[in-house]
Amino acid sequence: MAMMNRSQYLASLDDGRRIFAEGQEVKDLASHPQFATAIKLVGDGYEAHYRPGEDASGPYFKIPRSRQELKEILEDLLTWDMVTVTTSQGLLALLTAAARIRPARPEYARRIEEYFEYCRAKDLRCVQAITDAKGDRRLPPSKQHDPDVYTRIIERRQDGIVVRGAKLHISSAAVSHELIVMPTKNMKEGEEDYAVACAIPVNAPGVRIVNTSYAPRERIEDFPVSSRHNMPEGFVILDDVFVPNERVFLAGEIEHSATFAHALGLWERLGGTAHLAEFGDQLVGLAQLVAEANGTDRIHHIREKIAEMIIYATLVRAGLEAAIANAEPSPEGWYFPSELYTNAAKHYAAAEYSRMVRHLHDIGGGAIVTAPSVRDLENEEVGPFIRKYMATKEDIDGEYRTRLFHAVRDFTADAYGGWQLVTMIQSGGGLYAQRLVARKHYDMERAKDLARKLAGLA
Prior knowledge:
The chain is of the alpha+beta class. The chain has 15 helices and 12 strands.
């Protein structure tokens, strides 16, 4: 067992993986501009966490064994790159699934634990591949015109299985090492081939990843957020990929098909809530800075909007704290966050996020999308005029205010901002899934009992 540093991580990407971007196969991933920022971010993470020694491993492989340890992992998570976050969440989701299926399928639980140790020993980065193409949403997997639109087992061998399908919306897959494949939904009788969970190396024969990106291509100085924080979005093709038995965690047991998705949803929603709590504070900060720069920070409706944003940020963080405080141990001694509070907090945070962004845009005004570029600021002829007319008060110069507007636009109103709006809603399974799980874990009988007492019907 040994940890990797930056150079070793870069070398690990040259493993024969097949990556496509903008219509072309990428032969040298490390030098391609679409992947440069992502690779640097992951490399920075490797370098920051690296410790020599055969027994060393990163904090992202930590399994929480108390509520305090769970809280510490979430606090650390906010400082990690996306690939490191998905590695921690994905492996903890696998362990959660292992704990739930162990009584009925101890062999699968054992394989999951051994896979966890394999990733820890090799210091690998993993992504979760869950969302299928789905085809006609009205039809179940077994009734689709094309049976491959849900990932499925097409062959069962003595030494493993062969899978075919596609997994969509797989952030940072191209710059990771492992794909953790899970069923996207609960499978029913007759859909056994679709009840498949397994681990596949990114460079396995038959794997191809087509990438899109919200990263800016030019004028980097006008994109202070997305130029420093972007990851490729992967469309993962699984074209008859062989998976050996030791990497197969589910192969036809439909009664456990939803277990993996529910486990991943729990950890993705917890991590998403942690990030949304941070985003809430950032939106408040931007709103206050823009209001002060515009000279509107004492206007009543501006103050009210910011107050509402403060309440949003505080309640999201309170929901996160409740999810941790009500965490429960598994028989193995692993602590998992509260299903009820995690789902309720994530639902509220995601559902109200766009309204908080709307408040920010209302406070900021049109200059959020029309402010001149930084290059125009630096132009000898027009730059001084821009500084003059973009300035407001004695201590708010034109360059400061212009750059502040660029930050708001990039974070909330451009390609990265649009990606955030969609991702906040869809990460962890979408709002409806979170309502279902919250309802399932809510103590309805207690609520009904309280209502009966109130009505004198006890």
